[in-house]
Amino acid sequence: MTVQIDIGELTSGARAGLDLEELLATRLLVQGNSGSGKSHLLRRLLEQSANWVQQAIIDPEGDFVSLADKFGHVVVDAVGTEKDLQMIAARVRQHRVSVVLNLEGLDADRQMKAAATFLDGLFDADRDLWYPMVVVVDEAQLFAPSAAGEVTEEARRRSLGAMTNLMCRGRKRGLAGIIATQRLAKLAKNVAAEASNFLMGRTFLDIDMARAADLLGMERRQAESFRNLDRGHFIALGPALSRRPVPVKIGPVETTGRGGSPKLMPLPEQPKQDAMDLIFTPSADEVQPVRQRFAEPVMSTGEILDQLSSAQRAGEEAEPQAESLLDFGEREEKVAGIIAEILSEEDAAFQPIATLYQDFQVRCRIAKLPGGAPDLQAFREKLSVARAGVEKGEMDDSAWAQAELIAAELPQDMRGVYLLLAKAALGKTACPGNLEIATAYGTRSPGRARWLLSHMEERGFLVCATDLRGNRIVTLTDLGWQTAPGDEAAA
């Protein structure tokens, strides 16, 4: 079956057609500087072929999500883990649904990893699912760079491998690659070389014009003609387009992108003083920066001892012992209050356990705590939980009892960290950052926090994963609870 789709018109006034069945076997490369009309061309091609073939668009800027409203494409935002994205890609091939992979908001490194994961999922589908599919990759030089850049070597290697598979081996799996790039010089040659159809738009650099002329079989002196192309005008060549280079003007489209060229408009008229007020006066809904205030001076241990001596000379009574369960409950409340007072002081959370316990004993004697101060082991456990900021009253008692039971299998100084993660997982809140975990452990080192999570993961208490936006997700294996994604670098 031969399907000709209309992409525009030739200089003679005739319609410019593209053989869709031939395109599936020979692939397409589009080049043009920013503003030359590449995205417009891709949108025209996608709209005209939407009813004939399944489509997948790798969209780094979120420009093609508008296809969903008119043509029923499903927008896949790059969230969750790489495993989730790979499973989505497998379902896309299974159910033959056209999709737009929206990578907007991700940095270059994560965009490359997400695109590689999705393309690998399409490529690795079972043989029974090798239905024809057009795979459009906008800004292909980001995913198949000709040289190493600022991204990590792992991300570059994975993305380049996935793009190479798409263009070199995708045909047998029904995948027809359509790649668009601003500069041919930035695109890996082994990826560009596999395309047999070309649409070359406006470009200015000599190296790009020469390479475009070579691909189209034009003489070098004709290369400068690419500088004179208007926006939306391309030179077409290939078995799916034309047997010789012909100029094509791309036709109109039905949908619009969220980007586009900015339009000039006059500046608002306002007196100079009003403009100064707008700049230098904060608005009512503007978030004001919070200035860090110095904490109140911390009372030294010597001053506390002086208070203790004065109280003893005044003839304080002997420390009463707990005689009933009511007294015991009040005692636990006082212990919790004393520990909270200690941790409220500046840098107290990072003091050695021996120093904190000495301070705790003194405060217990001043408070006339019934039964005396708890021993060091009990204090260490209570301090660990208090550092984590866990309030039992906020939790379901039965569920929280399970968390405490499992935390008891860890060393005492790690129990608070586990309960901190359990609190976040039970409340479906974001995973705590490294600094928060480190503080719960009694250190300022984010590296120590990462070691703690690795240690607990090795012992089978939890599993750490990273979603495609780089946020951490922690699953507590024994409880089956999972935190929401959280930035590990969050303060």
Automatic annotation (TrEMBL):
**Pfam families, alphabetically?**
DUF87
Domain of life of the organism encoding this protein? Bacteria
Q: Which Gene3D superfamilies match?
A: P-loop containing nucleotide triphosphate hydrolases
Residue ranges crossing the lipid bilayer per the database entry: none
Domain Helicase HerA central, chain residue ranges per copy: 5-71
What PANTHER family does this protein map onto? HELICASE MJ1565-RELATED (PTHR42957)
Q: What is this protein called?
A: Helicase HerA central domain-containing protein
